[in-house]
Amino acid sequence: MIDSKEIKSVASQVGFDLCGVARPRMFDCNKSAYERWLVAGYDSTLEYMRRNIDKRFDVTELVEGAQSVIVCAVSYKSDINAVYKYETPNKIASYACCRDYHKTVKKMLLRMLSQLQSRYPQLQGRAFVDTAPLLEKQYAVEAGLGWIGRQSLLITPRFGSYVLLGELVVNMKASSYDRPLGGVGCGECRRCRKSCPTGALVDDMVVDTRRCVSCHTIEAESAQNIDLNGWIFGCDECQMCCPYNSNAEYHRNSAFDTLFNPLEISSEQWMSMSEEEFQAQFSATPLKRSGLERIRCSVSRFDKSE
Q1: Catalytic residue among 3, 130, 227, 303
Q2: Known active-site residue 43
């Protein structure tokens, strides 16, 4: 058995702001809702969302011998979003102005696992950062980190929704498990749903990716009839209006310091940028996933709409 207090102490040492431990279990209710989401076609061109359905809702199918799910979160809040306005051109989601969190959080998780294994040699586990069919937001709720807001993102009392998640699924039981938070939530607030420029938040915690600006600037083929509202990578509209984010603490881990300010890069600079210049400045950030050519297409669409 692994001590839960020790887990959280190590998580803090490697740079996480929050950590909780949950029991592995089936999420039948989530599975039913997910299947309805697929039937409605809200996954659009994201074909990977239809794969590994059983593993998605039962972590023991994903990791054999799973006994505990350790959920960690780290804040990335900066001043980037505070200066965006509705008409601001060439906006980039604030998480993408930092180093690619997939790599950063994964390294933190592996350091954490290594430290725990030095104390518990029999401990085995796998680290996950947003790239496997794992219900990380639901497990974050189970681990007491926060709740899932109307915009479908995890909201935490201290850091709002500006958090990045990572999980360790391990083969040992914990000395204690956390419980979902009580007495907190979104209440009657619906600012996120009202702020979505394309109406992609079709219901509480239901996103239609056919309309989602973030999806159209990163994943799906960008439809010409979608108004990108000045966003060229990602979209933070539903986060910028959230009261919890207005009062959230800023990030403390220097690994999530911003590497550039989107407001300092004009449309002309984006359009004249060479591939070499793009790689030199942005290869360590999530923008590499989209690529220069796709970003240029989004920039040009905004210019034409003016």
Answers
A1: 130
A2: no
Three-point CA angle 220, 28, 32, nearest 5°: 50
Residue 26, phi then psi, degrees to nearest 5: -80, 145
Please tell me the distance from the alpha carbon of residue 284 to that of residue 100, in angstroms, as a whole number: 6
Give per-residue pLDDT as tens, 274-304.
Answer: 999 999 999 999 999 889 999 998 998 765 5
DSSP 221: P
Q: Cβ(68)–Cβ(209) under 8 Å?
A: no
Q: Sort strands 18-22 and 68-75 into parallel, antiparallel or unpaired.
A: antiparallel
Helix (H) or strand (E) holding 105: helix 101-119
| Percent of residues, the chain, with pLDDT higher than 90 | 82
261 vs 255: CA distance, rounded Å: 16
Q: Which residues contact 130 (CB under 8 A, 6 or more apart)?
A: 101, 102, 136, 165
pTM over cut 0.85? yes
Contact 113, 63 (CB under 8 A): no
Both structure tokens of 59: 């972590």
Q: Which residues contact 289 (CB under 8 A, 6 or more apart)?
A: 218
CB 172 within 8 A of CB 118: no
